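Hey, I'm writing a tutorial for new members on how sequence and structure tokens pair up, and I'd like a real worked example in the thread rather than a made-up one. If someone can provide the structure for the chain below, I'll link this post from the tutorial.
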Amino acid sequence: MKDQATGGSAIGHFITRVWVLMLIPALLLGMILVYGMLTGGVQTEQGQVDEADVQVEQMTIERILLPEPGLIQVEVVNDGAGDVTVPQLLIDDAYWDFTAEPSTTIPPQAKATFTIPYPWVAEELHVVRLITSRGATFDGEIVARGETTSADLSQ
């Protein structure tokens, strides 16, 4: 009889410990959620929500040009309310060096042209992906049919 009483007491004690150990993370999570609700979430040093942290980057690829063999130009416009910085660029899933005019940081409603030395192949599909400093991606496709000619008044 004493063994059953001792065994039952040990099991009850073990179950109590497990419940206490499970409640500790739940209580910590609850305290973090309450703190976030009371302080208003993401804040700057002045205690206000930083609008740049909640803005969605918006950019449109207007044109992709092939001005000469081995060169691709991508013309973009920033349609968003904040600056967009493009530090990386992929073509066909590979990173490529590029130059940007006027800059890799594009103000709202401004345009930029990215020039990439790339050995494009005629009649093949190429995918261009611009990656912003916040990780947003903007894709454009081009089938390289040959060099893009400039339009003049006769055309």
